[in-house]
Structures are given as structure tokens and as C-alpha cells.
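fold-stage: in
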Amino acid sequence: MALALSLGRRGQGTCWPNPAVGCVIVRDGRIVGRGWTQPGGRPHGETQALAQAGEAARGATAYVSLEPCAHHGKTPPCAEALIAAGVARVVCAVEDSDPRVAGQGIAMLRDAGVEVTTGVLRDQAARDHAGFFMKTEQGRPLVTLKLASSFDGRIATATGQSKWITGPQARRVVHAMRARHDAVLVGGGTARADDPSLTVRDIGVEHQPVRVVVSRYLDLPLMGQLARTAKDSPVWLCHGPGADVERARAWEGLGARLIPCAVHGVQIDTTDLLQQLGNAGLTRVFCEGGSALAASLLADDLVDELVGFSAGIAIGAEGLPAIGVLGLSRLEEAPRFELVETRAVGPDILHRWARPLR
């Protein structure tokens, strides 16, 4: 099952809105088939593994990181494919919360005489599929908030200089993280100040995530990197009802997709923002700031994972804080996360935190 989960992660960032499922087929103690959900969501992991196994699947055991689907979509149900292949046993990590499946895949297998075992490495599978589950159950994608800051929690000097607080090794890890998410998300202030490309570079990955910018008035540079490359890699602009009509037309002409969002106070409503992104099919979003957007997501309890890169440099109180105003008066109001990992990355420290599983 650990191998099936590992294979499934290969599909993360490329197969939305479908889940990234891994499958391993074993017969007589030997692996005869492996598969994971392919780019675009098809073929599914089980289909890939069965094709590799061929006749060796008959009487074998299939280890699947998510309950096999039971509904007819653009492809037949994976549960039916496993039955037709003659698989004798299916070991499933976690049940699917999609109402089109939700136990029906397991029931279909058992009704056909296939032995089914569930719950193997359930917690890890729940983490791996958290984005898909969130979109299915809550209508929004999982949000990972990444912040690269100085030892004292600053992301830029008072003059706005921010390149580079962390080293090249940390930036390379960030590119790998981008590649495993469906989209990279930044606020309009970050887009204006840094003119980022938000692409995956220098790690041998051809696939690019959707680049999402939150800009209430669409006051973004029409000659920046995002504008120049909007027809090469997707750019989605989330804006408020008061956005400039001419700028909207200009961005659409450049190839960007415009997504209207509700406004709360002076900012885009982050709850509606994520609902809109979920409606568009996204399951995993990698937010890279800035400080105002980070604060809004945290204040609205919409951050599921934190990734921090801390550098051995002190900028001082006059620098720009990594997270904007949260308006907390009591410590118990502060969002808390559980430590998942900490390690050195070049001269910097990576620390990763997650919301407790609910």
C-alpha cells in the first residue's frame, strides 16, 4: 500500500479534478502491475495497473490508494474492470467520499465475490486525497500556504527588496511543490511587486500549474511576465465586481481566464474565492502570499497546510511581515497546526505543518 500511495502522488497536480490514485497488483508475492492516474484524469490508476498485469491479474491482489470508482463517466467503473480481470482481493486504503461512489465500489466488488480489505494506511491516504475530499465535501480545494522568510518572520526589507532571502536549494524544493499542486495562488500586491512567472522550472517537469492571481480591480501590469505568458500556461484572475472593464477585456485578449468573486469589506472574499476555484475543478492550491492574502486565508480558517522556509538572516521590525494583520486579541484564537516535518535545505530550514485530520 505504501507503494500504491507513492505511485498515486505522481499524479498530483496533473489529474484534477480527478483524484490521484495509485494501484499495485501482486500475484504470488510478485508485483505484476503498477499504475497511477494519468494527466487529465485518465486512464485511472487501476486501469493502468491492470493493463500492465494482463492475464497475471487473475487471482491476484490489488492494492489501491482510494476506493475504486463505481460510476460510469467518461470511462467505465474501475470496480467493474477489477472484477472483469478476475482479481481475487482488493486492499483499499480509504473509502471515497464522492456520493457517486461512497461505498458503492466496495459493495460492487464484494457482490461479485471479491474479497475486500479497507483501512490500510488510512491516515496517510486521507492526507494524500485531502484536496479531492475537500472539493467533494466542501466545494473548495485544499490550501497549502508557503512562506519563505527571515529568522524574524520578514519577507522583504522596508524598501521591498526580497530576492533572495532563502537560497537556491529552497527555491528548487518550492518548484517541486508547485508541480504537485493544481494551481499556484498569489495576491495582486505580490504580482505587482515581484512580477513573478509562477512556473515550475529547472526540475525537468513539463507540466505547469494554473497561475491564479487575486486582484479586486485587475490593476495588474499588462506587460509583466504573467501577461506575456498567459497563452503558454494558464492564468486565472480572480476579481471583484468593480474591476475595470477595459482591463478585463485586455486580459481576456491575452488569454487569461477571469473569475468574478464576491467582496468582503475591502478585499476579495476568500471563502467565495476558494468556492469559485473548486467549481473550476481545482483540488490542490499552493499559495505563495503575499502577507495580506495569507492573513485573510488564515483568518477565515482556510489554510490546511503550512510550509515555511526560514533563513538565517534578520531584517528587523521595519521589514514586511510574512503574515498581515489577523486582528487577534487572545492567543487561543490563533490558528494552530501540527508539525509534520522539519529539515535543513541548503543553508535554510524547511518546516511543514498540517491541520489536524477532522
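fold-stage: in (second)
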Amino acid sequence: MKKIILCFFAVCISLAAHSQDSLRQKVRMETNMGNIVIELYNETPKHRDNFLKLVRAGFYDGVLFHRVIKDFMIQAGDPASKQAEANQLLGDSNEPYSVPAEICFPKLFHKRGALAAAREGDDVNPERKSSAFQFYIVYGQEFNEPMLDRVQQRIDKYTDGTVQLTPELREVYKTIGGTPHLDGQYTVYGEVVEGLDIVEKIQAVETDANDRPVEDVKIIKAEVIE
């Protein structure tokens, strides 16, 4: 009887986890290079709710991907980018609030397609609170074991050895790719479920000395998919 009860309990946990995943809310971003659909994690409710609030308010309609680095990530969310002139430096707009960190490593990590919150550096932001508005989508690269060993050394430096890449995560970074050096230091709160090919195109565009695309890459409209 005990075995049956335990098995039933395990099934309930599995179903609950599946239900949590299936109830994740999604956001569609229409860009001038194609559409990207993002699924938001319930494990990071403050970031999820903040992002949904901004999307519903139309905050992201018209903003640019103002910082793009090939084989790394694409970043957006600066409201000043809506009226930005050519060559204008972006990314430093004042924000009225920040979002408390919700770092759920190793469950949520910087695999290719991950959505994460930008933030100020540890020197002025030791609590690793997130930007109210700015986010980035990971593209990254694929790694081999020696590369991941070097990444682990870098992570150790910034986390005092408290963040370790598990064998499972290493396998993801070797086969799918991402940006593992950011793990345990930034809040990951969603992932791309459609349009990763669009992310790939955006991360490969020509950029200037400040990593801003030479030709604007714009979020035309962002909307919650109910």
C-alpha cells in the first residue's frame, strides 16, 4: 500500500508541474524582422507580472533592440529608444523602480532563447535587482568541455563558487548553446517558444561601436496571448 501511495504522490507532483508549465502566459512580439513568442515562467512571479503589466500598457510598442551582440544576446526596453536619433547612445534612461531578483538557478538558466532581465552591475547593485524595463534574449553559442571549464572559473569569481554548472546544464550548453557565464547572477524569467530564427537574424545584424544596430530593429507591437 505504501508503494502505491508513494507512486500516486509522484504522479500528482508530475501533473502539478505539467499544469504549471501549461498555464504559462505568452507574449508575442511583432518586430520589423519577424515575430517572437515568449513564454513566461511562473517561478519568477514578480518579473512575470511586471513584464505583463508593461506589455498590456503598450510600453514596448515602438522600442528598439538597442544593444545587439553577435553570439551573445539582443537587448531592448529603453523607452528613450522610441524617439531615438541615429547614433544616439541608448540604455541609460532613468527608471522609477527596480524588480527584486528572482534567480532560480539551476532550474532556470541562460540557455539559447532564454528571456532575462538586464540590471546594473554588482558594484552599485549588490542585491542584483533587475531593471524595471530592460530585458535581453539569449542567443549565445555552443560550448565544449574545456570552454565550460573556463566559464566555470569565471562564474566562481563572481559568485564565490556558489554557482556550479551541473552535468545536465553542461549538456544543454554543448548541444543547444547559450550564455552560461551569466548563470546565477541575472534573473531568467521566460523563454522563446516561437521565432528563435528571428532572434538569430537580429543578433547577426550590423552594429555600431556601441552595439546598436546600424539599421533600427524595432518591436512594432507586443501583446499578451490569452
